[in-house]
C-alpha cells in the first residue's frame, strides 16, 4: 500500500491491461481533465494519469457556450460548471465551392458527414454528452469526439453526474495498487512476447537471406552452363575431354532376323 505523503507508483505500460480505467469511458469534469498529469516518458501517446490511474478515454457533459471553426475542424466549447471550460473537436462539414450565402445549406445538411458521430444539430445552449480521447494542440488540451449525444432531460443529467461520482468514489480517489508478483509476471510475459517477436523476425531474415543467396547461385550456375566457357577453353584453347562411355556388355550388334517380323498387332501407329 502507498503510505501517506508518498507519491503513488506509475506502473510500466505492460501492466496497463489490468487497469480499471484504461479501456473505460471515464466520467470526468473539465477541471479534472486539465489537472491530469502527463509524465515525460508517456509524451506523444495521448495518455494521462489521475493519481496513477492511466486515462485515455473520457466522457464529459455540459452546456455549449461557443462554436468555432478552424481549418478542417469544428470546436464546441463546453461549460460543465467545474470552473473551467473545455473544447470538443469534430471534423468540420465540407462546404461546396462558390457557395452563395443566400442559399447556404442548413445545419442539418452541413452535419451530414458527421451523422454517425453527432445525434442531431448542435447549437449554443444545448446540453451534450461527449465521449472522446484527450488530445493536446498548442499546449492546450481538448477532446477529439468519438460520439456526441444531447441530454434532453434533467433525469439524464442526473444519471451522468451519478456515474461521475461513483467512478471517483470507487476507483479514482484511491491509488491503483498491484502486487509485486503480478508486476513481475506482467514483465516476464512482455519480455516473452518481445523475444518471440524477435525470434520470428530473425528466422524470417535468415530465410530471406538464404533465398537471396540461392537465387544468386542459380543465376551464376545458369550463366556458366548457357554462355560461359570452361577453364580449359579459356586458358588452353582446347576442348574438354569427353567422358568415357561405360561398358555394359550390351554393345554387341544384334543378330539379323531371317524371318520378317510383323509390324501390325494390337496397336497401330496412331494408337501409340
From TrEMBL:
<dbReference type="InterPro" id="IPR012340">
    <property type="entry name" value="NA-bd_OB-fold"/>
</dbReference>
<keyword id="KW-0539">Nucleus</keyword>
<dbReference type="GO" id="GO:0000781">
    <property type="term" value="C:chromosome, telomeric region"/>
</dbReference>
<keyword id="KW-0238">DNA-binding</keyword>
<feature type="domain" description="CST complex subunit Stn1 N-terminal">
    <location>
        <begin position="45"/>
        <end position="89"/>
    </location>
</feature>
<dbReference type="GO" id="GO:0003677">
    <property type="term" value="F:DNA binding"/>
</dbReference>
<dbReference type="GO" id="GO:0005634">
    <property type="term" value="C:nucleus"/>
</dbReference>
<keyword id="KW-0779">Telomere</keyword>
<dbReference type="InterPro" id="IPR040260">
    <property type="entry name" value="RFA2-like"/>
</dbReference>
<feature type="compositionally biased region" description="Basic and acidic residues">
    <location>
        <begin position="197"/>
        <end position="211"/>
    </location>
</feature>
<keyword id="KW-0158">Chromosome</keyword>
<protein>
    <recommendedName>
        <fullName>CST complex subunit STN1</fullName>
    </recommendedName>
</protein>
<dbReference type="Pfam" id="PF10451">
    <property type="entry name" value="Stn1"/>
</dbReference>
<feature type="compositionally biased region" description="Basic and acidic residues">
    <location>
        <begin position="241"/>
        <end position="252"/>
    </location>
</feature>
<feature type="region of interest" description="Disordered">
    <location>
        <begin position="190"/>
        <end position="272"/>
    </location>
</feature>
<dbReference type="InterPro" id="IPR018856">
    <property type="entry name" value="Stn1_N"/>
</dbReference>
